[in-house]
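Researcher: Final request for today, and then I'll write up notes for the group meeting. The sequence and the SMILES for flavin-adenine dinucleotide follow.
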Amino acid sequence: MSPQRAAVMPHVGIAGAGLAGRLLAWRLLRRGARVSLFDVGRRDDRGSAGPTAAAMLSPTAELAAADAHIHQLGLRSLDLWRHWLDALHAQTGHEVYFRREGTLVVAHAPDRGALAHYEALLRAHLPAGEAEASLRSLDAQGIGAAEPLLAGRFAQGLMLPLEGQLANDQLYAALAAALDAALAACGGAWHEQCPIESVQARALLARDGTRHEVDLAVDCRGIGARSEIAGLHGVRGEVLTVDAPWVSLRRPVRLIHPRYALYVAPRPGGRFIVGATELDSEDAGPITLRSSLELGSALYSLHPEFGEARVVRLAAALRPALPDRDPVAAVDAGGVWRVNGLFRHGYLIAPAVVGQAEQGIADALGLPPAVDQEFAHAA
Ligand SMILES: Cc1cc2nc3c(=O)[nH]c(=O)nc-3n(C[C@H](O)[C@H](O)[C@H](O)COP(=O)(O)OP(=O)(O)OC[C@H]3O[C@@H](n4cnc5c(N)ncnc54)[C@H](O)[C@@H]3O)c2cc1C
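Model: Predicted protein-flavin-adenine dinucleotide complex:
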């Protein structure tokens, strides 16, 4: 693109290059905007929520903790992910692991009551007419057929067939590749290690005192926007990453237990992301001994084959949550666009929520529709 043409494209400044910021930058670049992206970290830093997450796409299971609105956003996003990942692949050649083969829920025999309670909770919250497609009871034979590794270990379970998962490390890398090419073409930039103190309608104020003027500013700083969004708070989550290439699971498995609910999300190459804890704490420090013991022993109780798994990472991060637990993707009274409050289901709902911001910003700036599978800037 010529420097003259880049200069007349509306310039959008985005604070935060996490899940929301990266996706939104990519979507707006596809519509021909000039984008500048700012993050306190480097592009491959893993301390924030996005790279720490298990990235399960669980519209049914989330009903145990979220309302029908999140469920609907999740179902819409599951369809959008397929298209968005295809478009990313066409642009960058990066394949992002994405599966939609459901989630298996199991419980040990003494915890049958907790499983029954969980099933009743989901059934009570599923919108009328959706239970049949969303949830199936399984006996021991059904569990073994779905996941041969678990054959004979559990007598009762549930299949949540509409659910899926993706590999967030691959998604982050694919988005970085797409952004690098498109930012260079439009005259924008990715400002790494550039903390933003404050976001205004047409400017981003960096901690070093620099004022970055733009036509429209978007705040995607997750928990980093705490001082500018009333009620925004962090909810701590902890995960254990292990390598066990001799263990095979086709889909995420949840283990119901009265004290903690474990999830295990399989990744390519024999890697597993294991999580359980959700703590109403804003402590972003390292994972505790108690959590690592609980995660490890619950994983071992799922199957002893995990006993020799290699521990690759123990990590904790803060999920950005609003008091009503709903996301926001809108312009505030001061003219600042904010995408936040993705809480514990950011991956589940990101395409719908970011798509809403994309459309609103495109309307405000008069951006044309996206040219599918190629960047407008390449023209
Ligand atoms: C342990 C754990 C497990 C999870 N599992 C799942 C799951 O299975 N499924 C699911 O759907 N969701 C899951 N989530 C939730 C999901 O990760 C979040 O909802 C999502 O990452 C939020 O996206 P975000 O872009 O708003 O914030 P983030 O991903 O946190 O990104 C915010 C970005 O802003 C940057 N930033 C912060 N402050 C500043 C500043 N002052 N200036 C510039 N940049 C700044 C950060 O460096 C970061 O890059 C999980 C989260 C955690 C912690």
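Model: The first helix runs from residue 3 to 8. Residues 12 and 35 are 5 Å apart (CA to CA).
Researcher: Thanks, that's everything.
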